[in-house]
Every structure is written in C-alpha cells, then in structure tokens.
Amino acid sequence: MYNFYIMDKEKTKGKLYIISGCSGVGKGTLLNVFLQRNPQIELSISVTTRKPRSGEVDGVNYFFVSKEEFEKSVKNNEFLEWAEFNGNFYGTKETYVEKTLNRGKNIILEIETRGAFQIKKKKKDAVLIFILPPSIEELEHRLRGRNTEDEAAIQNRLHEAYRELECSKDYDYKIVNDNLEQAVGELERIICN
Ligand code: 5GP
C-alpha cells in the first residue's frame, strides 16, 4: 500500500525542460507564443544581477538583485544552478523549481549552456533543447537590429554565441528558429506529447 503511494507520487512529478540559444535567436518570442498556447506549462523566473532593460518587471521577467544578495544565495546553496554571463550573474532557485515539479507541473528554464549542463549532471531526466539561428549571418543581423547595445557588447554577445553554438551538440533536441509557427510546433511535439 505504502509502495503504491510512493509510485503514484513519482508518477505525478513534473518534468524539467531547459531551453538555451544564443542571444538574438528569438527564444523570447518563441517561448511567449508557446506559453500562451500552453498555459499549463510553467516558466521559471531566474534571479539576476543584470539591470532591468526598459519594460522589464521585477518578479515577472527576473528577480533583480544586487551582487551581494546573489553571493549570499550562492553561499546558502539556494541555487540549482548559476552562471556568469556577459559580466552579470544569473541563477535558478532550487525551491522554486522543486515546488513546481512536486505539484506535478512541467517547468521550462530558459538558461545558458553552463547552467544547463550543471542541471543535467544533477537531474539526468532533464530535457535539453537548443534553439538555433537559421545562420550565423542572420544571428548577427538580429543582434545588431536590437539597437540596445554598443559595439563592444555586441562583439561580446557574438563571441558567447559561437561558444554556445558549439555546446549545442550535447543537447537532446535542436530547433532551428527560421519559421516561428514551425518552431513552436516542434517545441510542442517535444514538450506536450
Ligand atoms: P539576458 O540578459 O539577455 O536576459 O540573458 C542572458 C543569458 O542568460 C541568456 O542566455 C539566458 O538564457 C541566460 N539566463 C537567464 N536566466 C538564467 C539562469 O537562471 N541561469 C543561467 N545559467 N542562465 C540564465
């Protein structure tokens, strides 16, 4: 009887999906459309030391914290994973993810590759999905088109993009974000089946 109870609990635990992709690849738009159509899936809200961009809201896009607060959370082992990216720190709170999974909900983490591999080491059944640009030229074009950053920041992001593309070979699935509808469909086949 007790064993059945445990098995039942295990069965109802949610699944963890990680989505990565270089800056400018259109992850945000893809995820927004996907989540609007699939509101039963949760999106994890990360903690970051990056300053909010215009329009970003604390507790919605990120939990924006100081470097000191972030370091305190690292010391207290509160993160399932964390990484430095482009001079800022980003992390996923473990309790947030575990609570969601224990409620039987599937959760998506939109994080960079170093964090993704930290989680895959701890949670073998995490599913890693990488969003690819149609081409490197297109990626550079999209990055420049944002008009939100100076040349040095763009070069930095491009450098990171090449490194991240290299990591994509170790992901479980790769989706080319050429056509939005198609890309959303592929994501649904992976996550909603
Ligand atoms: P942005 O500053 O453009 O919002 O994000 C920069 C990068 O940080 C993106 O690749 C994004 O996926 C990643 N990122 C966002 N949240 C987290 C997180 O909690 N952990 C890690 N490792 N990366 C994150």
Question: How would you describe this structure in keywords?
Answer:
193 residues; alpha/beta; Rossmann fold; four-stranded mixed beta sheet
CATH topology: Rossmann fold
Oligomerization category of the chains in this entry? single chain
Q: Which kinds of small molecule does this entry bind, naming each only once?
A: guanosine-5'-monophosphate
**Strand coverage percent:** 15-25%
Query: What order do the helices and strands follow?
Result: HEHEEEHEEHEHEHHEH
Radius of gyration: 17 Å
Number of H/I helices: 8
Q: Describe the largest sheet.
A: 5 strands, parallel
Low-confidence stretches: none
Q: Which structural class do you get from the secondary structure elements?
A: alpha/beta
| End-to-end gap | 30 Å
Quantity of strands, as a count: 9
What is the CATH architecture annotation?
A: 3-Layer(aba) Sandwich
Q: What is the C-level CATH assignment?
A: Alpha Beta
What integer is the average pLDDT?
91
CATH superfamily: P-loop containing nucleotide triphosphate hydrolases
Number of domains: 1
Sheet with the most strands: spatial strand order: 2-7-1-8-9
Overall geometric form:
globular
Portion of residues in helices? 40-55%
